[in-house]
Every structure is written in structure tokens, then in C-alpha cells.
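does this look right to u?? flavin-adenine dinucleotide version
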Amino acid sequence: MNSDILKVLIIGSGPAGFTAAIYACRSGLNPVIVTGDEVGGQLITTPEIENWPGRDDAPDGFTLMYSLQKHAEKLGAKLVNDKVVKVDFSERVKKVYLASGKEYCAYSVIVCTGARAKYLGLESETLYKGKGVSACATCDGFFFRNKITAVVGGGSAAFVEALYLTNLCKKVYLIHRRSSFRAEKVLVDKLLSLQESGKVEFILEASVKEVTGNGNMVTGIVYEKNNEQVNLPLDGLFVAIGHQSATEIFEGVLELNENGTVKTGFGCETGTSATGVFAAGDCADSVYRQAITSAGQGCKAALDVEKYLLENY
Ligand code: FAD
Ligand code: NAP
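got this back:
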């Protein structure tokens, strides 16, 4: 092996990336992690993680992810605060190009680029992004203290966002297109229990049609329910309708599923369509999408890399 070429490069610093790094370090593979814009991944802004095994103290996402980062660094992982903009996986030695202009060569790559928030796709929503429309209550909720907000969505993320906002806002609406929820029951029960206080109101079987505003800030939305359009005055709209895998840079390079996730199962569980390239976490998973399953897949990918390098170099 040429010492100028990395044994393994990990793209992404969420639960999958850091866990892959921890395992790769212990196998003596000296991994480099390119962190991307969001060091720590999606969990970083979450106020409470209640389902990470062994942490019954419900740490916030930053604390939990920082402990994974420290663990990986203590074992020798090198973090590069940069973003991958292009990859070339056509040769045995993989080439990875960063936004800064830097370039890495590696015998193997683990893709852990996770997912990012989806939006409704309304023109008015785009117009008011950052002016009252947000996909992160923990990041932007502070600006809506004692104001009226709504959260769109019926999954766990929407309920987490709504619960967080109830601590800050005068009133929070939860708007969902159906009358049943994908969210964990414990979260649904928590939010339902706040209805009586008048702080929370559910608007169900309704879809947001337009975001209204004064040019500078959101002033409300128009939603449709029972074929009727209703104006709802609001100060902020939080969109929590799921996440899209962050795999654009792999289009035409790796085989992707219809929903954009990286196809795996080539040669081993985490193997992709390019030999020597492995994928783990939300970027390759449209079903489980949990911190712990992503971490588990990161572990598997590192073990698959170790076997690949032993057999091929
Ligand atoms: P991510 O956490 O998405 O990390 C992806 C990483 O890839 C990031 O570091 C990003 O910077 C990097 N990246 C992306 N593109 C590039 C690029 N081009 N170059 C370099 N790096 C790149 N799960 C739970 O189990 N419990 C919870 O309580 C929980 N709460 C949640 C709350 C919210 C609001 C949300 C949105 C999700 C929550 N989840 C929770 C789900 C959990 O966050 C994800 O399943 C998990 O973070 C996925 O981990 P990952 O490592 O695959 O990807
Ligand atoms: P999700 O579970 O996929 O839920 C997305 C929600 O948005 C669904 O209710 C969906 O409606 C709705 N939706 C999707 N597209 C829409 C559109 N165009 N217009 C209106 N509504 C739309 O996504 P998520 O809540 O982001 O959660 C993602 C993953 O992270 C899940 O695996 C979840 O378990 C995990 N997570 C876990 C926790 C936790 O454990 N505490 C917290 C947050 C997230 P339908 O129901 O009608 O499809």
C-alpha cells in the first residue's frame, strides 16, 4: 500500500460516520472523516435524545454527537472540516474532491452523507425561507418567543419540533394531511396532553397551499381542508415533512434507488455498486432512519472495509 493513499476515507460526520471511524481506528485503518457542513449530522440541533441506549438522561443532540466525535478523535480519527463536491470511483484508488480544492486518494470510501430536510415545494415557501419559514425549530424557534407558529407534518420530527416550540411560543398549530400519525406514541401523547392548555391546536386532514407575508416576514398561511381554503394568521411556519437522502454527488457514480438512497448489498451488506465503496446510515436507508441504526450500519461498513482491504491489498 502506498502511504500517500488513505486506507479509508469517510464522508459525513453523523452517527454513521463517527461509528465507522471508531471501528476503522480500532482496526488500524487511520480514517479521515470529511465532516460536511453539519458536524455531528441531523441530531445536532435536537433538544432531547431519549432512545440512545445507555443514556436514560436524554442528552441533547449536540452533547451526544460531541461525545461520538471525541471518541473517534481519541482513537486517532482525523477530521477535515470541508465538503465533498465530486467523487471519482472508477479506479481501484478512489478520488474525492473537496470544496476547498483539496483532493484525497483512498483505497476505500464509506459514504455516510445522511439526509436533509424536505420542503413542501411552494413558491411562497421558498420566498419566505429564513423570513419565517424554517425546517429547524431548535435553530430558529428563539425568534418566535411569544408568537404564533405552525408545524407541518405527522412524523416524530414534527412532534419534536412542536413540543420544543410549545416552550417558547404563545400558540403552536400542528398541521397534518391525515388524521393518524407516524410519530412515536410517546411524542403524540405528550403533544396531545398540551391541547387542553390552549397552547396547542391540531389541524388535521389539511394541506398547506400558500405561505402569505408582507414581503419581509411571514404573516400566515392558506391551508385547505374539506375543499375549503382557510387563512391562518401566523408568525412562523416550521416544515417537518421528512428528509431526502443527501446523495446528489453520487448520481451517475453509484447506483441509487428511486427515492435517492444509495443501493447497497453488492458483495456485502454495505457494499455499493462501486467496488471499494461502502454506504451506511440515512443515505442508504429509507426505512429505519434512527441514530442507533445509522451507527450500527457505520459499524458494519467499517468491518466490511477491513475485510475488503485484507482481501485486496
Ligand atoms: P446524518 O446525521 O444526516 O449526518 C450526515 C452527515 O453527512 C453530516 O455530518 C453532513 O455534514 C455530512 N455530509 C452531507 N453531505 C456531505 C458532503 N457532500 N460532503 C461531506 N459531508 C457531507 N433518531 C433517533 O434515533 N432518535 C432521535 O431522538 C432522533 N431525533 C431526531 C430529530 C430530528 C429533528 C431529526 C431531523 C432526526 C432525528 N432522528 C432521531 C433521526 C437521526 O437524526 C438520523 O437517523 C441520523 O442522524 C442519521 O445519521 P447519519 O449518520 O446517517 O446521517
Ligand atoms: P417521517 O417519519 O417520514 O414523517 C414525515 C411526515 O411528513 C409524515 O407524517 C408525512 O405524512 C408528512 N409529509 C410528507 N410529505 C408531505 C408533504 N408533501 N406535505 C405534507 N405532509 C407531508 O419523517 P420525520 O418525522 O422527519 O422522521 C424521519 C426519521 O427520523 C424517522 O425514522 C423517525 O423515526 C426519526 N425520528 C425519530 C425521532 C425520535 O425517535 N424521537 C425524532 C425525529 C425523527 P404521511 O404520514 O401522510 O405520509
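The first strand starts at residue 9 and ends at 11. idk if thats expected tbh
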